[in-house]
Design goal:
The chain is α/β, with parallel strands linked by helices. The chain starts with a strand and ends in a 6-residue tail after the last helix. Helix content is about 25%, strand content about 25%. The longest helix has 15 residues. It has 8 helices and 14 strands. It has a domain of about 160 residues: Rossmann fold (3-Layer(aba) Sandwich). It has a 6-stranded parallel beta sheet with strand order 8-7-4-12-13-14, with helices on one face. A 3-stranded antiparallel beta sheet has the order 1-2-3, with no helix packed on it. Bound molecules: zinc ion.
Length: about 250
């Protein structure tokens, strides 16, 4: 089965046509076989996935919470140090690399991610809005100075004000980093093509960003192994693993 999606009307004078050849085998393996003059603004929301881990008898959402940060900062650090050591051996997957390559195809590409693992930057993505922070950074609790831990240990205390450091990630019970969500909203409202990738565990307010893009007139495409609450909003749903589907787009 072939479906032709012509986006010219949505993109004004620019020509962006995608011919999607769907249905390979049992599942819908979408393959985009043609893409011409990909142009203007692309915006990508990449999901973070759920986590049900238990550590030292504490559920993930307890040890990773704002309350635990207040009660026992060393325990929170112990947990995140453990996670970083585990993540150190994880490399970007084909989806990370493909999204990084899209930077060469689109004059403007913004990537907003709920992941905290830093793998998009590791794969080469430059304009990344980290909605939930980055596990490889520490942040001062008072002056918000940040410290990169990817190349070595963090200082014992903030070098600017001497106060205590904490992981620079959004914990349960906390707001998103100042400015990050606003910037993501702004870019979503300006984009013409919006990809929503791997967001099966939809977390608001980030999950509302594709709705902003759609309302502003963007063509919204979802890539996910199964349908999500967002699927009905999308112009196109490409079902499959991001690492398998994304490299086929435009080939
Ligand atoms: Zn400080």
């Amino acid at each position: 089965m072939k479906r032709t999606i012509v986006l010219c009307a949505l993109l004004g004078l620019s020509v962006l046509s995608l011919v999607v050849a769907a249905q390979q085998g049992g599942g819908q393996q979408a393959r985009v076989v043609e893409a011409e003059k990909l142009k203007d603004n692309l915006w990508v929301l990449k999901g973070g996935g759920g986590n049900t881990a238990v550590w030292k008898g504490m559920p993930f959402d307890v040890i990773s919470s704002a309350g635990m940060l207040q009660r026992d900062l060393p325990a929170v650090w112990e947990w995140f140090d453990y996670r970083r050591n585990f993540m150190d051996s994880i490399l970007p997957n084909p989806a990370h690399y493909e999204i990084a390559r899209w930077q060469e195809r689109f004059p403007s590409l913004t990537l907003a991610t709920q992941n905290i693992d830093g793998l998009h930057r590791k794969a080469g993505s430059r304009d990344v809005i980290e909605l939930h922070g980055n596990i490889w950074r520490a942040r001062c609790k008072v002056c918000r100075s940040t410290y990169d831990m990817s190349q070595g240990a963090r200082p014992d205390a903030c070098l600017e004000c001497g106060d205590r450091l904490r992981p620079d990630v959004v914990l349960f019970g906390e707001f998103l980093p100042p400015g990050a969500f606003e910037l993501a909203c702004q870019r979503a409202a300006q984009c013409e093509l919006c990809f929503v990738i791997g967001t099966s565990a939809l977390v608001y307010p980030a999950a509302g960003l594709p709705e902003i893009a759609k309302t502003a007139g963007a063509y919204v495409c979802e890539v996910n192994p199964e349908r999500t609450p967002l699927s009905d909003l999308c112009n196109e749903v490409l079902m499959g693993k991001a690492g398998e589907v994304l490299p086929l787009i435009g080939k």
